[in-house]
Amino acid sequence: MANISLRGLDPSTLSRIKTSARRRKLSVNRLIVETLHEHYAGGGREFDDLDDLAGAWSPAEAAAFEAAVAPFAEVDAGLWARSGKPAARARAARRRRGRP
User: In Å, how far are 60, 74, 84, 90 from 100, measured between CA atoms?
Assistant: First the structure.
């Protein structure tokens, strides 16, 4: 393994690094190695968010996605009424009687 000497680090940054290492129960060296590995090792990191997709769809792709997920915005009144919520039961009863 190669060694690197880090010079010119300001006290404020060093303090934040030490605090972060303490919180994560790591040595400063281990924290820096892990951080460098995360940012520069490439390929091995898996993301669990959708940040890379933001703004990447064409208008047609975005419209197709919106159409595909639209049913998830609909509430099944019958299921909601059976959930035990008094207001939901009242709304479902009004709907059965033909009132909104």
Answer: 35, 16, 20, 11
Query: How many whole angstroms separate alpha carbon 13 and alpha carbon 50?
Result: 30
Q: How far is residue 58's CA from residue 25's CA, in Å, rounded to a whole number?
A: 44
Distance of CA 30 to the CA centre of its chain: 26
User: Distance between CA 37 and CA 1 in Å, rounded?
Assistant: 13
State the number of CA atoms in the 13 A half-sphere of 29 facing the CB.
4
Structure tokens at 73: 């915005």
The pLDDT tens digits for 65-77 are 999 999 888 888 7
Rounded to whole angstroms, what are the CA distances from 3 to 6, 14, 21, 31, 33?
Answer: 10, 19, 19, 15, 11
Q: What is the pLDDT of residues 51-97, one digit of tens each?
A: 777 777 889 998 999 999 998 888 887 776 676 666 666 777 777 77
